[in-house]
Sequence to fold (284 residues):
Amino acid sequence: MGKISDSLWIDTARRLRRDRRAMIALIFIIGMALVSIFARPLAPYDPNAQVLDEAKSPPNLKHLLGTDKFGRDILSRLIYGAGVSFKVGFISQSISLLIGVILGSMAGYFRGWVDDVIMWLINVVWAFPALLFVVAISIALGPGITSVYTAVALVSWVGVARIVRGEFISIREREYVQAARALGASDFRIIFRHILPNTLAPIIVVVTLGFAGAIVAEAGLSFLGLGIQPPEPSWGSMLRAGYNFLVTAWWIPLFPGLAITLSVLAFNIFGDGLRDALDPRLRV
Fold:
C-alpha cells in the first residue's frame, strides 16, 4: 500500500509539473504566502500611517501604487491584506476539513441512521444560498476576522463531507477493507488506516478550491462592513473604501480588485490542474 501510494503522489507531481498554467498559479500562490508571512519587512510603509498631504496621490516613485483618501500607502496595505486573506483561507478550510472529514467518514462508513442524520444536516445547510448563509452567520457573530473564518467554515464543510462520504461508500466494500475487517481490525483502524488515506486526493482538491471561495467571502463580507474592520488592511475593505473614486482616483479600487481577482484565479487554476493530475482516468 505504501509503495503504491508513494508512486501515486510521485506520478501526480510529475504530471502537475507538465501543466504550465498550474505551475504558474502555484508560483503565484507561494509568492502570495511568502508576502503574507514577511509582510512587515516587505511593506515600504506602515499600512495605517496617514499622510493627509499625500491623499489620493497617483502611482509614483515614492508610492508605487499610489495612496488612498487618507494618504495611506496602497502597496503596504495590499501586502498586509494578503496576510488577512491567507489567514481566513487557512483557518476556515482547516475547520471545514475537520468537520467535513469527521461527519463524511461517519456517514459513509456506518451508513444506516447515522448516514440519514448527517445527510439531513448536509441537505439543510446545502439548501441555503452560501453567500446569504455566510452573511447571516457574520451578522449573528458580529464583525471581525473571527466571525469571517467561522462563517466560511460553517458553510464550506458541506462540500468536504459530501466528497468524503461518497469516497467511503465506494471504498468500504473493497477487498482489502473486507480483509482487514475479517482479521478483527477495529472500525477506528479501518477508517484511519485503510480508507481515509485513499480519499486524500479529492479532499486536497476540494480544500484548494475552497481557498478561493474563502478569499471571495472575506472580501465580500469586508466590502459589506461585516468582515475586517478599519483601519486593519483588508482587500475587501480597501475595495469598499475606494469604489467611490473609480473615476477620480482609479488606482484606489483597482489594485485591491486585481489582488482579489488574481488570487482567486490562481487557486482555481491550480485546483483544476491538481484535479486533472490526480484523476486516474487521465493517466496514460
Residues 74-110 form the longest helix (37 residues). The radius of gyration is 22 Å. The chain has a mean pLDDT of 86. The chain has one domain: 2-43+62-282.
